[in-house]
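Progress note, sequence design subtask.
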């Protein structure tokens, strides 16, 4: 047993004894009733002499004989509380300083006062134990610096690292601002299936399971209802959005998690040009509401979300940063050869589309720091987007910020014949070994044959967005409980 575990076990044993001592004194260590009148923040706003009842976790305790000073923390902040033996009685004072520990949750009633050093405080008149902590907070022994431990015990991470808790609060404000903005634009929030017989809307590996009731193999969705929301467009809904979880059975790194949160919205009678204009109003609003400023810092860069944003084409930006004109290489063999010649990584089993995408990600994308629209990706990469004037490309854009994709948007393909042909191409890619190629959704093509209005749509990764505006270097930092591999 490590010294660290031994210390924790000894501390727990001591606290269990205190628990029994409290019970013998007739004190219920886990009562059901609370009578709070103020949060910590509200208490500090009250005038001197006011009586307040506050609750929170004991974060610091200093016994100075007949006087004790403590720190009590709740979700609104932290407040200093003081305890005088002469005010509450010798026995109550003794129980407080001997039987209560840092980490315990308390309710205290007292009077607002200011210490001789000018610190706003509350003098305890009475106290109630609300929940006895049997394990100590980790910083009592060794801090909470081990990253893997922080993710395994996320609840402790939030307690001892307030800046991590703030990231989750920023994420919440971000999501609320997204909803507020889209509601204000006339969009309606919908819910679409998470279990699908055909996982479509993206090019990704699926999580697969079996539905016993139908004896049917199904997949967890890999996007937020793209083809379902476009069926809603066919059905007469003109502006919809959904916020939810998506699942991709792929690698885990600082920009990818197997389960993640996205928003997707679809807008009839608009195209990707309209969508860019909407983005230039929407993103500044969301960022300002979430963090209070349009400028955020990430990886040493000051990123300014004030619009308008520059526009570059996929073709031009790849040419600029790689020296390769992808229009000159119509098949994977010739493209792979020139990439090898110039020293870029080449997957010999990749399709031309994947090679183009890898070239872009190796060269151009990492260099784009400020919010920038990258337009018109190759048709092989975007089987659900309408083709551009040059049919080798599509009417779509990604908003790239600090080297990664923040938003992915199309002028949606509504030609059922073109859609069928592209699904057939994806099916052939899958048969050739590309297990991320999109599956053929026959029912969706049938829906398009009933006529879908011209439309634009967007997908935004909320985890990435939150990581960007909080300066986080991994999506785990903005995820309440990221998946971790069990120790055993």
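Output:
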């Amino acid at each position: 047993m490590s010294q660290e575990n031994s210390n924790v076990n000894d501390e727990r044993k001591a606290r269990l004894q205190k628990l029994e001592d409290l019970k013998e004194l007739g004190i219920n260590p886990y009562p059901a009733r609370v009578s709070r009148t103020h949060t910590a923040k509200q208490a500090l706003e009250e005038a001197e002499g006011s009586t307040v009842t506050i609750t929170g976790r004991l974060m610091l305790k200093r016994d100075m004989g007949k006087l004790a000073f403590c720190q009590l923390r709740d979700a609104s902040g932290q407040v200093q509380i003081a305890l005088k033996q002469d005010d509450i009685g010798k026995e109550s004072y003794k129980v407080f300083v001997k039987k209560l520990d840092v980490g315990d949750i308390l309710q205290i009633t007292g009077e607002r006062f200011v210490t001789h050093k000018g610190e706003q405080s509350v003098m305890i008149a009475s106290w109630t134990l609300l929940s006895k902590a049997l394990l100590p907070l980790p910083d009592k022994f060794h801090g909470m610096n081990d990253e893997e431990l922080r993710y395994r015990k996320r609840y402790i991470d939030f307690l001892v690292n307030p800046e991590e808790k703030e990231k989750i609060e920023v994420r919440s404000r971000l999501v609320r601002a997204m909803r507020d903005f889209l509601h204000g634009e006339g969009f309606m929030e919908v819910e679409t299936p998470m279990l699908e017989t055909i996982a479509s809307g993206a090019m990704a590996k699926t999580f697969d399971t079996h539905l016993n009731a139908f004896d049917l193999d199904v997949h967890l969705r890999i996007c937020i209802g793209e083809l379902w929301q476009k069926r809603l467009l066919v059905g007469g809904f003109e502006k919809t959005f959904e916020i939810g979880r998506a699942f991709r059975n792929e690698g885990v790194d600082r920009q990818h998690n197997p389960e993640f949160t996205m928003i997707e919205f679809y807008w009839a009678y608009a195209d990707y040009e309209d969508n860019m204009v909407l983005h230039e109003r929407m993103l500044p609003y969301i960022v300002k509401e979430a963090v209070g400023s349009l400028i955020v810092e990430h990886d040493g860069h000051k990123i300014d979300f004030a619009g308008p944003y520059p526009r570059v084409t996929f073709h031009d930006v790849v040419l600029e940063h790689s020296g390769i004109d992808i229009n000159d290489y119509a098949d994977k063999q010739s493209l792979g050869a020139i990439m090898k010649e110039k020293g870029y990584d080449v997957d010999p089993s990749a399709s031309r589309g994947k090679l183009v995408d890898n070239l872009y990600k190796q060269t151009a994308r990492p260099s784009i720091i400020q919010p920038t629209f990258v337009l018109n990706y190759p048709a092989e990469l975007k089987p659900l987007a309408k083709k551009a004037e040059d049919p080798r490309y599509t009417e779509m854009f990604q908003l790239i910020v600090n080297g990664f994709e923040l938003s992915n948007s199309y002028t949606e393909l509504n030609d059922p014949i073109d859609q069928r042909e592209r699904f057939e191409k994806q099916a052939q890619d899958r048969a050739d070994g590309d297990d991320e190629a999109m599956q053929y959704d026959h029912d969706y093509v049938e829906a398009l044959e009933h006529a879908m209005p011209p439309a634009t749509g967007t997908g935004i990764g909320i985890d990435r967005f939150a990581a960007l505006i909080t300066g986080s270097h991994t999506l785990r930092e903005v995820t309440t409980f990221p998946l971790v591999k069990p120790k055993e």
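The longest helix spans residues 162-184. Work on this subtask will continue into the next period as scheduled.
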